[in-house]
Design a protein that fits this description.
With 437 residues, the chain is mainly beta. Helices cover 3% and strands 40% of the residues.
């Protein structure tokens, strides 16, 4: 999610795709030395106001229709606006609302992140499902995917008795330290299916097992939790925590699991990218840090911003906080790349998928404007990549990225312009070409 932007809190996001080479000196300049790719199409703008249903684009997932790849779908969250389903032309196929609040004074449903599971065993047979983190209600929502279903491909099959992930009662839910980031994982050794869920404004991660019921619904059960660090010992002997509002800890949102190794990559927004066993055992390893790592800051309650101090030089070189969406570009034989969105500087970073290589940094890129009406991706929150042919439209695969600042802007008729977001569709072949692979 996009939080208030301050000198101490910017934003980052991750995608999975191929290695991108740096531009030549003649090509460098406005793109900061990184290659630029442009979108093929974009979804209709979402507006985070009453007229737009408080809809705010956040996180996408790409579902491949194996029987008819041209009819594949992009499933995306719109926060209080619920879920959106798009076809490969970026046209709206289905819109599903988030749940209403239990009572007028309670928090409404708010869909944050989405991931997919292929071939989940249910009482009615195998099913592809979309799993969504409902931050507003601190629950997971599960949707069956069936492209032949009249009225739309998604059907809610969440068990009505499914419990909150982190909260004990509605009062805690209303505090909104609730289910936030999400990634799914199918453990090859046991055949069991899980979701990894992060907690908003906390460092906690939860491993949750998805459990089909006899009635055809799906529920879940928490297996264990793990708390990432909230403070860090710096080389100069001091202890540092990122600047934030009082009571907030450095949270995780962007997450992805490498299915080949059972490795979870988690983006702790103001810290960097962690590598962790997906079963949440073992010791987390910090793969890369944001540039702002170690920079002191003081929170001003009047301005609700952080005043940054001098940079001691302990941060990384590639990511500008927040680290947000993470996705995996998979190639045969375990090759491929972890792709991360550096939300603070509108770039994307690529890391080698191989743990044995230490997830070495391989390059970066930007998603720039294709025309005056088809802009690029700014303040990117979530992203998804699929390195598989998707019919005639995307024979080389697809990259979908959230655009946190949709242009051209639309006047609201009163005080300026409406806040608009959306999703950009990028031909993965264009990314490969830019990388000269």
């Amino acid at each position: 999610m996009r939080t208030h932007r301050t000198p101490c809190r910017t934003a980052v996001l991750v995608l999975g795709t191929a290695v991108l080479a740096f531009l030549t000196p003649a090509q460098a300049g406005a793109d900061g030395g990184l290659p630029k790719v442009t979108p093929v199409s974009e979804t209709p703008a979402l507006y985070d106001d009453e007229a737009g249903g408080n809809s705010d684009a956040d996180d996408p997932a790409i579902w491949r229709n194996a029987a008819a790849p041209d009819r594949s779908l992009v499933i995306a969250t719109a926060k209080e606006g619920g879920l959106r389903v798009y076809d490969l032309e970026a046209r709206l196929v289905q819109s599903l609302p988030a749940p209403r609040p239990p009572a007028e004074e309670d928090a409404p449903g708010r869909y944050n992140n989405v991931d997919l599971v292929t071939g989940l065993r249910t009482s009615t047979g195998r099913a592809d499902i979309a799993v969504v983190s409902d931050r507003g209600n601190d629950r997971l929502r599960i949707y069956r995917i069936d492209p032949s279903k009249p009225g739309g491909p998604l059907t809610d099959i969440t068990d009505p008795a499914a419990a909150p992930v982190f909260s004990t009662d509605q009062a805690e839910i209303n505090d909104q330290r609730t289910a936030y980031g999400l990634a799914t994982w199918q453990d090859k050794s046991t055949g069991r299916t899980y979701a990894l869920v992060s907690q908003r404004e906390r460092t906690r991660l939860a491993l949750v097992e998805l459990k089909p019921t006899a009635s055809g619904t799906v529920t879940y059960q928490k297996v264990r939790t793990l708390d990432l660090p909230a403070s860090f010992r710096l080389p100069n002997g001091t202890t540092w925590s990122p600047c934030a509002e009082p009571g907030e800890l450095p949270q995780v949102e962007g997450m992805v699991v490498d299915p080949a190794t059972g490795t979870l990559y988690a983006g702790q927004e103001d810290i960097g990218i962690w590598r962790i066993r997906a079963d949440l055992t073992g010791k987390p390893v910090l793969v890369d840090k944001v540039r702002e790592f170690g920079v002191p800051g003081v929170y001003d309650e009047e301005t609700e911003e952080c005043a940054a101090g001098a940079d001691p030089g302990y941060g990384g070189d590639r990511l500008s906080a927040d680290v947000e969406g993470l996705t995996l570009f998979q190639e045969p034989g375990g090759d491929g790349y972890l792709l991360a969105s550096s939300q603070g500087d509108d770039t994307f970073a690529l890391y080698d998928r191989e743990v044995s290589e230490g997830n070495e940094y391989e390059g970066g890129f930007r998603v720039g404007a294709a025309s005056t009406t088809l802009d690029g991706a700014e303040e990117c929150d979530g992203a998804a990549v699929l390195n598989t042919p998707l019919g005639s439209r995307y024979p080389n695969g697809l990259l979908v990225v959230q655009d946190g600042h949709e242009t051209p802007e639309v006047p609201d008729g009163e005080s300026g312009t409406r806040t608009a977001t959306g999703f950009k569709f990028v031909d993965l072949g264009d990314v490969v070409d830019a990388a000269d692979l």
